[in-house]
Amino acid sequence: MLRDERVARYGGELFCFRAVFPGKKAGGFSLIELMVTVSVAAVLMAIAIPAFSSIMAQNQLATATNAARGALMSARQSAVMQGRPVSLCAGTPTEGCSGDWSAGEWLVFRDDDHSGDLDDDERVVRHGRVPAADGAVSLDGNGPFRSALVYVPMGHAERVSGAFGAGRLRVCVAADLSPNARELVISASGRVRLQAVDLDGACPSL
Q1: Tag placement on the chain: N or C end, fewer CB within 10 Å?
Q2: Which domains does the chain show, CATH number per domain?
Q3: What is the pLDDT of residue 21?
Protein backbone atom coordinates (compact mmCIF):
# COMPACT_ATOMS: atom_id res chain seq x y z
CA MET A 1 0.00 0.00 0.00
CA LEU A 2 1.18 3.58 -0.79
CA ARG A 3 1.37 5.53 2.41
CA ASP A 4 2.09 9.14 3.13
CA GLU A 5 3.58 10.18 6.40
CA ARG A 6 2.70 13.59 7.62
CA VAL A 7 3.73 15.46 10.72
CA ALA A 8 1.49 17.90 12.64
CA ARG A 9 2.12 19.84 15.83
CA TYR A 10 -0.74 20.21 18.33
CA GLY A 11 -0.37 21.92 21.66
CA GLY A 12 3.36 22.00 21.47
CA GLU A 13 3.53 18.28 20.94
CA LEU A 14 4.64 16.54 17.82
CA PHE A 15 2.27 13.99 16.37
CA CYS A 16 2.98 11.67 13.48
CA PHE A 17 0.24 10.03 11.47
CA ARG A 18 0.02 8.17 8.19
CA ALA A 19 -2.55 8.78 5.56
CA VAL A 20 -3.45 5.72 3.54
CA PHE A 21 -4.67 6.41 0.06
CA PRO A 22 -7.25 3.95 -1.21
CA GLY A 23 -6.99 2.43 -4.67
CA LYS A 24 -3.21 1.85 -4.50
CA LYS A 25 -2.03 -1.80 -4.78
CA ALA A 26 1.20 -3.40 -3.56
CA GLY A 27 3.87 -4.08 -6.21
CA GLY A 28 4.37 -7.66 -7.51
CA PHE A 29 4.10 -9.97 -10.50
CA SER A 30 0.84 -10.65 -12.22
CA LEU A 31 0.08 -14.14 -13.54
CA ILE A 32 0.79 -13.05 -17.12
CA GLU A 33 4.15 -11.51 -16.15
CA LEU A 34 5.11 -14.69 -14.31
CA MET A 35 4.19 -16.85 -17.32
CA VAL A 36 6.25 -14.66 -19.65
CA THR A 37 9.23 -14.85 -17.29
CA VAL A 38 9.02 -18.65 -17.09
CA SER A 39 8.73 -18.92 -20.88
CA VAL A 40 11.81 -16.75 -21.45
CA ALA A 41 13.78 -18.78 -18.89
CA ALA A 42 12.78 -22.02 -20.63
CA VAL A 43 13.97 -20.70 -24.01
CA LEU A 44 17.30 -19.58 -22.56
CA MET A 45 17.83 -22.99 -20.92
CA ALA A 46 17.00 -24.78 -24.18
CA ILE A 47 19.76 -22.76 -25.86
CA ALA A 48 22.32 -22.97 -23.03
CA ILE A 49 22.14 -26.69 -22.17
CA PRO A 50 23.21 -28.04 -25.61
CA ALA A 51 25.99 -25.46 -25.79
CA PHE A 52 27.23 -26.46 -22.34
CA SER A 53 27.10 -30.16 -23.26
CA SER A 54 29.15 -29.46 -26.38
CA ILE A 55 31.79 -27.60 -24.38
CA MET A 56 31.98 -30.44 -21.86
CA ALA A 57 32.43 -33.01 -24.65
CA GLN A 58 35.17 -30.94 -26.27
CA ASN A 59 37.02 -30.65 -22.96
CA GLN A 60 36.73 -34.39 -22.32
CA LEU A 61 38.05 -35.18 -25.79
CA ALA A 62 41.00 -32.81 -25.42
CA THR A 63 41.89 -34.05 -21.94
CA ALA A 64 41.76 -37.73 -22.91
CA THR A 65 43.77 -37.11 -26.10
CA ASN A 66 46.49 -35.31 -24.19
CA ALA A 67 46.66 -38.13 -21.65
CA ALA A 68 46.98 -40.84 -24.33
CA ARG A 69 49.54 -38.82 -26.25
CA GLY A 70 51.52 -38.28 -23.07
CA ALA A 71 51.60 -42.05 -22.48
CA LEU A 72 53.04 -42.66 -25.95
CA MET A 73 55.66 -39.95 -25.51
CA SER A 74 56.56 -41.35 -22.10
CA ALA A 75 57.06 -44.85 -23.56
CA ARG A 76 59.33 -43.57 -26.33
CA GLN A 77 61.35 -41.32 -24.04
CA SER A 78 61.80 -44.09 -21.46
CA ALA A 79 63.09 -46.51 -24.13
CA VAL A 80 65.64 -43.97 -25.37
CA MET A 81 66.83 -42.93 -21.91
CA GLN A 82 66.99 -46.42 -20.41
CA GLY A 83 68.41 -48.09 -23.52
CA ARG A 84 65.84 -50.88 -23.25
CA PRO A 85 62.57 -51.75 -24.99
CA VAL A 86 59.52 -50.12 -23.43
CA SER A 87 56.00 -51.20 -24.39
CA LEU A 88 52.59 -49.59 -24.27
CA CYS A 89 49.40 -51.65 -24.25
CA ALA A 90 45.81 -51.68 -23.04
CA GLY A 91 45.80 -53.15 -19.55
CA THR A 92 46.59 -52.74 -15.86
CA PRO A 93 49.61 -53.48 -13.65
CA THR A 94 47.79 -56.38 -12.00
CA GLU A 95 46.39 -58.04 -15.13
CA GLY A 96 49.06 -57.07 -17.65
CA CYS A 97 48.27 -56.42 -21.32
CA SER A 98 44.74 -57.26 -22.42
CA GLY A 99 44.53 -55.61 -25.84
CA ASP A 100 41.06 -54.38 -24.85
CA TRP A 101 40.88 -50.58 -25.00
CA SER A 102 37.20 -50.43 -24.07
CA ALA A 103 38.14 -50.24 -20.39
CA GLY A 104 40.01 -47.00 -21.13
CA GLU A 105 43.20 -48.05 -19.30
CA TRP A 106 46.75 -48.36 -20.56
CA LEU A 107 50.08 -49.57 -19.30
CA VAL A 108 53.66 -48.48 -20.06
CA PHE A 109 56.33 -50.91 -18.88
CA ARG A 110 59.94 -51.91 -19.43
CA ASP A 111 59.79 -54.84 -21.84
CA ASP A 112 63.27 -56.36 -21.69
CA ASP A 113 62.42 -59.39 -23.85
CA HIS A 114 60.38 -57.41 -26.43
CA SER A 115 57.45 -59.77 -25.84
CA GLY A 116 54.66 -57.28 -25.26
CA ASP A 117 53.83 -59.05 -21.98
CA LEU A 118 54.45 -57.69 -18.51
CA ASP A 119 56.70 -60.22 -16.77
CA ASP A 120 57.32 -60.40 -13.04
CA ASP A 121 60.79 -58.90 -13.31
CA GLU A 122 59.72 -56.01 -15.57
CA ARG A 123 58.92 -52.61 -14.09
CA VAL A 124 55.81 -50.55 -14.74
CA VAL A 125 56.75 -47.07 -15.93
CA ARG A 126 53.29 -45.59 -16.15
CA HIS A 127 49.64 -46.57 -15.72
CA GLY A 128 46.78 -44.34 -16.83
CA ARG A 129 43.14 -44.25 -17.77
CA VAL A 130 40.77 -42.07 -19.73
CA PRO A 131 40.09 -39.04 -17.52
CA ALA A 132 36.36 -38.86 -18.22
CA ALA A 133 33.34 -39.93 -16.24
CA ASP A 134 30.54 -42.31 -17.26
CA GLY A 135 32.37 -43.70 -20.27
CA ALA A 136 31.90 -40.47 -22.23
CA VAL A 137 35.25 -41.00 -24.00
CA SER A 138 36.18 -44.24 -25.75
CA LEU A 139 39.54 -45.61 -26.92
CA ASP A 140 40.33 -48.05 -29.69
CA GLY A 141 43.48 -49.05 -31.54
CA ASN A 142 44.58 -51.06 -34.53
CA GLY A 143 47.82 -52.72 -35.66
CA PRO A 144 50.26 -53.08 -32.75
CA PHE A 145 47.80 -51.49 -30.35
CA ARG A 146 45.79 -54.72 -30.43
CA SER A 147 48.61 -56.38 -28.50
CA ALA A 148 51.46 -54.00 -27.58
CA LEU A 149 53.45 -51.21 -29.20
CA VAL A 150 57.15 -51.65 -28.41
CA TYR A 151 59.55 -48.71 -28.47
CA VAL A 152 63.20 -49.67 -28.93
CA PRO A 153 66.22 -47.68 -27.66
CA MET A 154 66.62 -45.96 -31.04
CA GLY A 155 63.14 -44.46 -30.55
CA HIS A 156 61.46 -46.50 -33.28
CA ALA A 157 58.12 -48.18 -32.70
CA GLU A 158 57.76 -51.88 -33.45
CA ARG A 159 55.30 -54.70 -33.18
CA VAL A 160 56.06 -57.59 -30.86
CA SER A 161 57.27 -59.50 -33.92
CA GLY A 162 59.85 -56.78 -34.64
CA ALA A 163 57.99 -55.41 -37.68
CA PHE A 164 57.41 -51.68 -38.07
CA GLY A 165 54.80 -50.55 -35.56
CA ALA A 166 52.43 -48.66 -37.83
CA GLY A 167 49.10 -48.08 -36.15
CA ARG A 168 46.52 -45.68 -34.83
CA LEU A 169 45.07 -45.07 -31.40
CA ARG A 170 41.69 -43.35 -31.58
CA VAL A 171 40.15 -41.17 -28.87
CA CYS A 172 36.46 -40.52 -29.48
CA VAL A 173 33.38 -38.97 -27.90
CA ALA A 174 29.89 -40.01 -28.99
CA ALA A 175 28.57 -36.46 -29.18
CA ASP A 176 27.34 -33.93 -31.71
CA LEU A 177 30.80 -32.49 -32.40
CA SER A 178 32.63 -31.90 -35.65
CA PRO A 179 35.14 -33.48 -35.49
CA ASN A 180 34.33 -35.79 -32.61
CA ALA A 181 37.51 -37.91 -32.60
CA ARG A 182 41.30 -37.63 -32.54
CA GLU A 183 43.69 -40.25 -33.84
CA LEU A 184 47.27 -40.67 -32.64
CA VAL A 185 49.16 -41.98 -35.66
CA ILE A 186 52.57 -43.63 -35.23
CA SER A 187 55.11 -42.52 -37.86
CA ALA A 188 58.09 -44.45 -39.22
CA SER A 189 60.40 -42.78 -36.71
CA GLY A 190 58.13 -43.61 -33.78
CA ARG A 191 56.86 -40.07 -33.42
CA VAL A 192 53.20 -39.42 -32.78
CA ARG A 193 51.12 -37.41 -35.24
CA LEU A 194 47.74 -36.08 -34.19
CA GLN A 195 44.87 -35.82 -36.65
CA ALA A 196 41.22 -34.89 -36.23
CA VAL A 197 38.55 -37.25 -37.53
CA ASP A 198 34.84 -36.56 -37.99
CA LEU A 199 32.71 -39.67 -37.40
CA ASP A 200 29.31 -37.96 -37.40
CA GLY A 201 28.93 -38.19 -33.64
CA ALA A 202 29.56 -41.96 -33.51
CA CYS A 203 32.55 -44.00 -32.25
CA PRO A 204 32.86 -47.09 -34.48
CA SER A 205 35.60 -49.66 -34.00
CA LEU A 206 38.86 -49.34 -35.90
Answers
A1: N
A2: 28-197 (3.55.40.10)
A3: 47
